[in-house]
């Protein structure tokens, strides 16, 4: 049997593929990481794309918002933010006029300890840092409804009332937006609960123009861009990272044009050719996506929701995920565990809709209509996994061994970084 070792970013998983199984490894194209991120950040800020330099945009006395991802998405902000702040100081901006807003969406707020770990003690002690709260109506501003989708738009009050808004994020494959990054950190990351709920509903998720890996003719991305015409994101710094989260490219400048340039580069890295459909797919989430099951299941998105499913109908998808923080919310658990058949989640979502975060069980149920999902190498109890209609196996090897008992020859696809790999049959 062929033995493999794959890192999750926190641990190394070892597994064996039965000798009579064929296999294929799909992983992002190799790109040389940046030798010095600090210098690369300075260079990007000195040569922004389709935008004046930050030191020209900002003026003394202006209120500045710097919007960043929470710790469910790794971005090297500890290096990037000091350079951005230096640019603002060179423009005459006072540190007391700068606020860092953590774009939590509807995720839980980050703890003080997590914030210090992500940003550094020096930043936390000298710059105001706040968690966005999508449920705090007093700190949200209603901006009207979007034209095409008629979605109510509410955004964080601090962000709206700022003179200059800067977004710092990562460009990687995204189920709804095509690719993450750009104005998404503003339009959803610091949006109110209702806005997020109505952009993550059955109508949007099942729309043929909601596309993973495609930002053109994508109704979700069009909504994000429309919001940014009401409240402008003045400047972005977006990174592209390799499979071990090393920055390989950095883009700064106009929130639309610089972002589109970043997506072009990202597509050349993340989109890879697959020879044929697989019977079994092993798709590995990398830390921090392994912190809970809610995040880890993202590794299956491109397997099911790409240009066409990588795994055949009735096939198997194996997701190894330690999930040290557990499932990722009682609602996620209850939405799936409370039904006798996952299809009930789909039917209910189409008729009744669902609140923020409810899109996850809806999409998981859609996956389960196509294939079997097996969770392995996890700290979550077997009973809870199975109650949610996933299958449970102790390890990848034990899952493959069980599959091999009833199948003499299968084709296995291995995605060592499933969250950022987009399989394409036609490249």
Summarize the structure.
The chain is built from 18 helices and 20 strands. It has helices at residues 37-46, 54-57, 77-90, 112-119, 121-126, 157-160, 184-187, 193-199, 202-205, 219-230, 257-270, 293-296, 301-304, 330-337, 343-352, 359-370, 382-387, 396-405; strands spanning 2-7, 12-17, 22-25, 64-69, 98-103, 128-131, 140-145, 152-156, 164-170, 173-174, 178-179, 235-241, 247-253, 271-273, 278-283, 311-320, 372-376, 391-392, 411-415, 422-424.
Task: Give a verbal description of the structure.
The protein folds into two domains: about 180 residues, 2-enoyl-CoA Hydratase, Chain A, domain 1 (Alpha-Beta Complex), CATH 3.90.226; about 230 residues, Rossmann fold, CATH 3.40.50. The two termini are about 30 Å apart. The chain has a six-stranded parallel sheet with strand order 3-19-15-16-17-18. It has a six-stranded mixed sheet with strand order 6-5-4-9-12-13, with helices on both faces. About 35% of the residues lie in helices and about 25% in strands. The longest helix has 14 residues. Helix 1 runs parallel beside helix 3 and helix 15 crosses helix 16. The protein contains 18 helices and 20 strands. The chain has about 425 residues and is α/β, with parallel strands linked by helices. Strand 1 and strand 2 form a beta hairpin.
